[in-house]
Amino acid sequence: LALSVIALVGCGSKPAETLKLGMGVVANLGEAKNADGDTNGSGNFEATAVAVLLDAENKIVAIDLDSADIKSAWTSEGKVVATEDFATKYEKGADYGMAAYGKKHDGSEGAVKEWNEQADAFIATATGKTLDEVKAMMGEDTYATGDLATAGCTISVAGFVGALEKAVANAVESNATAENKLNIAMVSSAANKDAVEDAEGSVDVTTTIVAAVVDAEGKVVVSKTDSVQGKNTFDAKGVANVDTKAEIKTKAELGTDY
Predict the structure, then answer these.
(1) How buried is residue 140: exposed, middle or buried, by Cβ count under 10 Å (0-12/13-18/19+)?
(2) Rounded CA gap, 106 and 101, in Å?
(3) What is the dihedral of CA 199, 200, 205, 206, to 10 degrees?
(4) How far apart are CA 54 and CA 26, in angstroms?
(5) Rounded distance, CA 101 to CA 154, Å?
(6) pTM for this entry
(7) Neighbours of 122 (CB within 10 A)
(8) 165: burial class by Cβ within 10 Å (0-12, 13-18, 19+)?
(9) Collapsing DSSP states into helix, strand and coil, what is residue 245?
(10) SS3 label, residue 176
(11) CA–CA separation, 41 and 70 (whole Å)
């Protein structure tokens, strides 16, 4: 009987390897335009987020990503034009309109995949690789090269790689396994303030990010959250005042400084 028990124990399946979960976010304010007469002023806030599951050798077992590019607008009287579109680039799909542009980054003619298809190519190519191997596929001009470009990712991957670097750096041990599914989601909103003679107006965008690992039944195994804010400001004449080079940290990165 004892030998039978030992034999049964010996035949037991090997426990699945647990993986590290990491999430990184990079954000920036784009160039802002002043309002001029009937032409509204404008600005944008873009946040790119990457979530990864890493094995013991820091190879990417699973990766997911998305980007929120939220537009702001205001009149030449310093009045905010309410933002209506908060969808991410993945959510927009073909409506994002990258493929319709029809030219590669070097200006040459050729088929250009839509943004979500380019992101899919990045995800597929990065899976199974280390961070350094992924970074090696980004050229000096930040555009994809090698296997990444061949797979159809022909855009600048600086945001993807920057967020991936952060995700790998902050990855921590979890109970997630390769059998689980990794998802990332982004939700944005804006708080608006009209400008007056002695005070600037603003469009303050907040993007909240959640990375969730779920099992076959849809139950959350482990998750990670963060939030990031970007503000476009302007005066009562619609003149923009935006520092496009300012470093934008997430709330988690700011810690007690928030």
Answers:
(1) exposed
(2) 13
(3) -40
(4) 20
(5) 13
(6) 0.90
(7) 25
(8) middle
(9) coil
(10) strand
(11) 14
Q: Note whether 33 and 41 are within 8 A (CB).
A: yes
d(CA 70, CA 34): 17
Q: What residues contact 13, with CB distance under 8 A and at least 6 apart?
A: none
Is residue 23 within 8 Å of residue 211, measured between CB atoms?
Answer: yes
For 111, residues 6+ apart whose C-beta sits below 8 A from its C-beta are: 99
Nearest to 228 by CA among 44, 30, 46: 46
In sequence order, which residues have a C-beta less than 8 Å from that of residue 130 and are 6 or more positions away?
Answer: 57, 58, 59, 60
- Cβ atoms of 4 and 193 closer than 8 Å: no
Which residue's structure tokens are 């990375």? 211
pLDDT per position in the chain (258 positions), as tens?
A: 555 555 555 556 677 899 999 999 999 999 999 999 999 999 999 999 999 999 999 999 999 999 999 999 999 999 999 999 999 999 999 999 888 765 555 555 556 889 999 999 999 999 999 999 999 999 999 999 999 999 989 899 999 999 999 999 999 999 999 999 999 999 999 999 999 999 999 999 999 999 999 999 999 999 999 999 999 999 999 999 999 998 999 999 999 999
End-to-end CA gap in the chain: 63
For residue 55, give the amino acid letter.
D
- What is the phi-psi region of residue 142: left when phi exceeds 0, alpha when psi lies from -120 to 50, beta otherwise? left
